[in-house]
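Inputs:
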Amino acid sequence: MHDYDMIVIGSGPSGRRAAIQCAKLGKSVLVVEKGRRVGGVSVHTGTIPSKTLRETVLNLSGWRERGFYGLGYRVKQDIGAHDLIARLHKTLNHEVEVLEHQFSRNGVRTANGEARFTGPHDIEIVSERGDVKRVTGEKILIACGTRPFRPDYVPFDGNTVLDSDEVVELSKLPRSLAVIGAGVIGVEYATIFSALDVAVTLIEPRNSFLDFIDKELIGEFMHELRDRNVALRLGSKVDAIRIADSGHIVTDLSDGRHVTSDMLLFAAGRVGATDALKLDTAGIEVDYRGRIKVDPVTMQTTVPHIYAAGDVIGFPSLASTSMEQGRVAACHALGIDAHAPPEFFPYGIYSVPEISTTGLTEEEVREKGIPYEIGIARFRETSRGHIMGLNSGMMKMIFSTRTKRLLGVHILGEGATELIHIGQAVLNLKGTIDYFIQNTFNYPTLAEAYKIAGLDAWNRMTAK
Ligand SMILES: Cc1cc2nc3c(=O)[nH]c(=O)nc-3n(C[C@H](O)[C@H](O)[C@H](O)COP(=O)(O)OP(=O)(O)OC[C@H]3O[C@@H](n4cnc5c(N)ncnc54)[C@H](O)[C@@H]3O)c2cc1C
Ligand SMILES: NC(=O)c1ccc[n+]([C@@H]2O[C@H](COP(=O)([O-])OP(=O)(O)OC[C@H]3O[C@@H](n4cnc5c(N)ncnc54)[C@H](O)[C@@H]3O)[C@@H](O)[C@H]2O)c1
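Outputs:
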């Protein structure tokens, strides 16, 4: 007999969903969280803070209104770090309160401290003061997430040279910012700061970035960034990062160029937060980035009663997918059949402008040798776009000319991360171009772009 039916290590999206699912099934569950408050990376340093900062920046800068009133338009003239942080704290407090209430009303127990295995069913919880508590669980879910990758050659100081966990607590807005790593985090922060008129340089060692996104969208996105004076340094390896006597940060690039900035954000990936867990005691191995391998359907590790979910299992490392992985793990652990997830999930990149995509890119369709046609809609051609003053934004849909099935939807621009779900539903329900041709969409909406892009593809597919 164990103390709990399930012990969950970590209270991020996967841990929280798993815990509530266990409680709903009438089981006893303990969530162990080493942070002072529940919520995980998602609530405290990742998803919610970055999206709140973005929203605050767009609101205070008047970004969405500049199409009408010009580039000089501002809602608030002098935007400081305190303006950004104040709203952040309010949102985070609210998120934590909601989560704590969900836990308490569902009877989920929580323990504050760092968990480590002392046996396959045995967990030690070490509090900040060093007190140790021992508990056992019939099933255990590892939902410990990741932490930023911090190589030795980066002189992090928590003030001007920051990782992505630290940037949400910045004390002063820089006038210039170098961002190293053009992954999702780097691109989101680079464009958010650029919307505040900070001079941003985005540095990436590879010649391309966000390679999972359709190339045509990336081309359009790069054009918008360059138009806004975001300096893109692609194919530029970092040789060294130095602090100059002036206090500026100088990044030496392998092509001989130097980037000088007030602040530097290093965002070159994350590593599994597994080092403290003593996983070898439970018989579990991790890869070079601290990640755990699981069965993709059941979420079981190589030790069947121990599950892992969320960022610690690697791709796709999203809060959205993590939540579902946690729920599936809990269901399987408690005897409910697990099913493979639907084929297509959406990516939402909250850059300025937003990017959202689901299904196959044009490059993937070509690689597979599927005959296809494309439909494009520009937001500036929709009536809602006129009303909103949009000068940019596009939707691209790809259809099979053999089956008429929708193969992929790719959106760049305002509302992309919300709009994508229409396309996702049609994709997962195996719908065809007929859905877009035959259905009526609300007018005036940006969703009308689906109709326009559908008709655009249909005109070419039916042309004799
Ligand atoms: C800047 C940024 C922006 C992001 N934006 C988005 C977005 O817009 N949309 C999206 O879908 N995803 C986004 N993500 C990804 C998303 O945050 C993660 O996919 C998600 O948080 C992973 O959830 P998780 O369940 O793995 O747990 P995490 O949120 O990683 O939390 C893990 C928790 O486990 C705790 N923990 C670790 N080790 C132990 C231990 N030994 N004992 C006790 N507790 C422990 C940690 O303290 C932490 O609280 C973003 C990430 C970052 C960094
Ligand atoms: N909107 C969202 O869904 C969202 C937002 C932010 C983060 N996330 C998740 O967080 C995770 C981590 O994001 P990320 O952007 O840090 O990682 P990433 O692995 O996606 O990107 C890292 C980038 O840094 C580059 N890089 C790697 N090593 C480097 C080095 N030594 N020097 C310079 N550049 C280097 C890589 O080529 C890559 O382009 C991702 O898996 C992502 O899914 C999701």
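Remarks. DSSP finds 13 helices and 22 strands in the chain. Residues 4-147+271-333 form a domain with the FAD/NAD(P)-binding domain fold (CATH 3.50.50.60).
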